[in-house]
Amino acid sequence: MREAKNSASPKQQLFQETVLGILIYAVILGFFEDYTNILNTWSYSTTFFVAVVLQFLTDITFRLKSLVVCHFKGRQGKKYTAALVVGVWGILFVSKFVFLAVIDFIFGSEVEISGFVGIAIIVITMTVTKKLIDLVYVKLA
């Protein structure tokens, strides 16, 4: 979204992206809760708070991924390319286990996710949806 917003400050952009992300995640989690066996929550309030937690965990994950990409940016050679791929893949793979652990720690029995594949499907769906919304937003400029 940052490409189309020239007048907003970085804090405003972060706030808007965070709020929009939480709302998108809450809607998607609601659909997963209602229409699949991947996610079961105790209440909609719980679903909403899971969306808040996932938004922040996803943001941290993408920031870590960006750090790895910046570290290897501009470096030539197969070993650097391989290290970049393994680093990014590792962060994205391990993050799903962290997501499950954090959700289990915070919410306990109020939230049931069908495991690694379930959280991966949820996070991928949320990320793709948010990227599509960002793309539409930029195209409307």
Give a nutshell description of this structure.
This protein has 141 residues and is mainly alpha-helical. It has 4 helices and 2 strands; from the N terminus they run αβααβα. Helix 2 runs antiparallel to helix 3.
Describe this structure in words.
By secondary structure, the protein is mostly helical. The protein has one domain. It has 4 helices and 2 strands. The protein has a two-stranded antiparallel ribbon with strand order 1-2. Helix 1 packs across helix 2, helix 2 (44-72) runs antiparallel to helix 3 (78-107) and helix 3 (78-107) crosses helix 4. The longest helix has 30 residues, at 78-107. The model has no long low-confidence stretch (mean pLDDT 90).
Write the layout of secondary structure elements.
Blueprint: H1 10-35, E1 39-41, H2 44-72, H3 78-107, E2 111-113, H4 116-139
Antiparallel strand pairs: 1-2
Helix pairs in contact: 1-2, 1-4, 2-3, 3-4
Evaluate the radius of gyration: 17 Å
Strand arrangement in the largest pleated sheet = 1-2
Largest sheet: 2 strands, antiparallel
Overall number of domains: 1
Count of distinct strands: 2
Average residue-wise pLDDT: 90
What oligomeric state best describes the polypeptide chains here? single chain
Sequence stretches where pLDDT stays below 50 over 5 or more residues: none
Helical residue percent band = over 70%
The percent range for strand residues is under 5%
From N to C, what is the helix and strand string? HEHHEH
**If helices are DSSP runs of H or I spanning 4 or more residues, what is the number of helices?**
4
Q: What would the principal axes of the Cα set say about the shape?
A: globular
Helical/strand content category: mainly alpha
CA distance, first residue to last residue: 10 Å
